[in-house]
Amino acid sequence: MTRDFKPELLAPCGDWEAFMAAVENGADAVYVGGKLFNARQYASNFDEEKIKEVIHYAHVRDVNVYQTMNILISDSEMREALKALERSYLAGIDGVIVQDIGLASLIRKLYPDLALHASTQMTVYNLQGVKLLEELGFKRVVLARELSLEEIQYITENTSLEVEVFVHGALCVCYSGQCLMSSIIGGRSGNRGKCAQPCRLPYQLLEVGEGSGLPQRKANRGYFMSPKDLCSVDILDKIIKSGVKSLKIEGRMKSAEYVATVVRIYRKYLDRLFESTDSRNEGIVEKDMKDLLQIFNRGGFSKGYLEGKTGKDMMSFEKPKNWGIYVGKVMACDRAQGSIKIKLEEPLSLGDGIEVWNGEDESPGTIVTSIRVNGKAVTEALPQQVVEVRNVKGRINKGNKVYKTSDKKLNASARESFTGKFKKRIPIEGRITVAGGKPLSIIVKDYEGNKVEVKSSYVPEKALTSPVTEEKVLKQAAKTGQTPFEFKELLADVEDGLSVPVSEINNIRRHALNQLEIKRTDRYPLRKPGNLQEKLEDVMHFPGNSRNGEEKNLKISACFYKDMAGLEYESLGVDRIYLPFSMFVKENKERILSIKENAELFVFIPPVTRGNYDKLIKSRLDDIVNMGIDGILAGNPGTVKYAGAYPKIRIMGDFSLNIFNSVSIKTLKDMGLNGATLSCELNLNQIREMGKFPDFVEEVLVYGRIPLMISEYCPVGSIKGNFGKNSRCSMPCKDKDFYLVDRMNMKFPVLCDRIDCRSMIFNAKVLLLSDTVDRIKTLGIDMVRLNFTDENPKEVKDIVKMHRDLLNNGSGALDSYKQLIDKIKSRGFTKGHFPRGVQ
Fold first, then answer.
1. What is the DSSP string of 56-73?
2. Could you write out the DSSP letters of every residue in 77-144?
3. Is the alpha carbon torsion for 33, 34, 37, 40 positive or negative?
4. At a CB cut-off of 8 Å and minimum separation 6, what does 475 contact?
5. What ranges make up the beta strands (E) of 75-199?
6. pLDDT tens-digit profile of 506-544?
7. Separation between Cα atoms, residue 508 and residue 51, nearest integer Å
C-alpha cells in the first residue's frame, strides 16, 4: 500500500446485538445513538446505562465509540441535548457526530477535549467547506457521499482533519442534509432523524403539459429515485490510497446479522491489503460477494459516485427493498395448493425466505417449510434441481422470477459469530512470581502501555509433598476464560520446593486482569463532572436578543432559481433580489446595474456546486463582485468560506444551512455572516422564541415552492436522456421542463442545472401564508422571502404587490387579492411547517 496507516473500519450499531456483532467481527470503531437527538430515531438505540456498557466493552477491546447527535436541535431542546451529551462524555465516548452548527459550537466550548465529527448531514463536499470546519474546531469530517475518489484525495492531501467516507450500505438519492421531502410532504423530517423515505416510492416522470390530469400509467412508473446500495469492497485499495482515515458502513436500522456479515467481509479484505503476502492482490472471493448480496441488496450494488456518475445504472428502478439473490423461475404453480415448482440456480434450504416477483408492487413470499425433489422431502436442494415449495400464497404465474431474500445458514453463521464464546481477544504479556517469604505476585501489561502489578496476601510455603512447578503455574495462570484477554507471552519465576494452591493463582490472575480491564476502559481520567447548568447559562446568554412581539417594518426579498424571461426585475418593488449565478455575465452588466439601482442585489449560489459549477463560480466571482453586487446568498459551508474572501460584500446564509436555533444564528454572526434565511422546518412559535442579534438579518420564507431535494443524480437525464455508465445523456432538459408525479398524482417540478447535470426537485405545492401575515409581523424577523420558480412575469409582480400590501395593511387587505389567492390555491398550496413544525 502507498499509505503507511490502516484506516479504521467503522460499523453501525442500532442495538446491543448489532454492537456485539460489530465488535466480535472486527470493527475498529462503532457509532451509536442515544434514545434522543440522533438521525435514526426508529432504531432501538441506547439509554444512558447501555451506552456505558457499550463504552466499557468496546474500550477494553480497543474499539472506539462515537455517539451520533446528527440532527437539528431546537432552542427548547438545546439544554437537554447538552445534558445528555455530558453523561456520555463522562462515560468516555471518543467522539460525537453532529449536524447542527450551533450545537457544535457549544460542544466546542463546553467539552474542548471531545472530538467533534462533522456529519455528512452538513453537506461538506469541497476543500473550502473542510477548511471552515477546521476553523470551527472539528477533528473529523464525514464527506458528502457524492464525491469521487479524486475529489476525496485532493481534500485529504490539503487538510489536517481526519476524513471519513461511506464504503457500504444504503445511499440517499439526495445530498444528505438537503432533503426536505419527507419533512414537507409528510411531517417526518430527515434532519430530525425521522425520514419516511418517500424516495423509495414509485414515480412517473413527465414533460410539463404531458399527462395533465390523468392517472399514472403503470408502464411508465418506476422507483426512479431509489438507489442501489453502495458496495466498495473490491476498490478498497483505491479508497485507502485516497488518504481517508475511516471507512464507514451504513446500517443502524439493519439487523445484527447484517452488521456481522458486512463487517466480517470488509475486515477480511482490509487486513489483506496490508499483508506482506501475494494474497492482497487476489480478487474478491465469489462466496463473500454472494454473502453481501444475500444479506441485503437492492438489485445488486453500485460504487456510488466513487468512480464517477453512472446515472440509471446506480438505481433500482424495479424494486426499492431487499432483493436477495435470484434462485430461478416458476416452472409451474398450483394456486389451490399454494405450491410452486422452481428450477434452481442457487441452493435452497428449509428456513430460507423467498419472494416471487409477479410484476405487482407486493411480491408473494414465504419462509420455506417444505422442499420436495421428485416427490421426496429434503432439507436442502442444489442448483439445477427442480423443487416444489408449498405455502406460497398470492398471484403467481409461470415464468415469475423467484428470489431468496434470506438465507438461514448465513444468518445462523452470522449470529454464531457474536453469541456464546467471545472471539475478539486483546493480546497481553505477564509474569508471575512464586518466591519463599514473599507474597505471590503477578504483572500483566498490554501493548498500549497499560501495566498492572498485583500482590496476593498469600505467602508461598515449603511444600510437604508435591511442590508447585513452573509448568503448573503457567498452565493455571494462562486461563483467561471469559475475559477479553489472551496471553501472547507469559513467564513464571518459580522457586523450587514451594506450595501454592491453585485457587490463589486463579485469584491473583483474576484480580490483575480485572484491574487491567478497568485501566483500559478509563481512557479519559481528566474528565470530571462540572457545573453544567452554570456553564450553559454563560454560553447561551445572548445580551440584547429579547423579542417584545412588536410589529416591525418588514422588508421583502425575492429569490429566483432561474432567469425569468420578460420580467422587469427593476420594477418589482422588493427590497432585495437574489438572482441566480448564471445571470451574472458580462453581457448582462448593464441590466445588473439597473436592477441594483432599485433593490439590494445578491448572487444566489446553489447549495451544491461541486465539479464544473464550483470551478466556474471561482473563475468568475471576482468579475461578479466588481459589478457592485451587495452580497452572496450562500447555502453551503464551502460557499461561506470562499465568499468570506470578499470583505466588502455581505454574506447571507440560505435555508439550506439548516439554521434551527439561536445558537446557530450567533455562530453564523461570529463567522462574519450578515444574515440568514431560517430553516423551513421551524414553526411560528419557534421563530418567535429565537434570539435577535444586532446587525444580523433574519429572513423567513413565506411564499413559493420549497426545494425538497438536491441530487447529483438527474432523473430527467437517466430516464428521458438514457444516461448510464456506458451511454451519454441526450439532454432532454435543454428545451423542455419536467416533473415527477407520485402515487397521489402530485407533480414535483425538476430543475436541471445543465452544468454538472445535477437536479433540484421542488415541492408540488406552493407555500402560501397570506392569511398568516399578522402573526408573521410579530415574529421579530427582519425580512420575508418569496421564492419564484415557474410563475409568469405578471404573477410575480402580482404576488410581490400582494405581500407588500399585506405587510403594510395587515390581513384587512386580503379581500383585494382573493382572486389571486384562489388561483394559487387551485394549483395546490401548503402552509408548510408554520402551524405545527416537524417531529
1. HHHHHTT-EEEEEE-S--
2. HHHHHHHHHHHHHHHT-SEEEE--HHHHHHHHHH-TTSEEEE-GGG---SHHHHHHHHHTT-SEEE--
3. positive
4. none
5. 95-98, 115-118, 140-142, 162-169
6. 999 999 999 999 999 999 999 988 888 788 887 877 765
7. 30
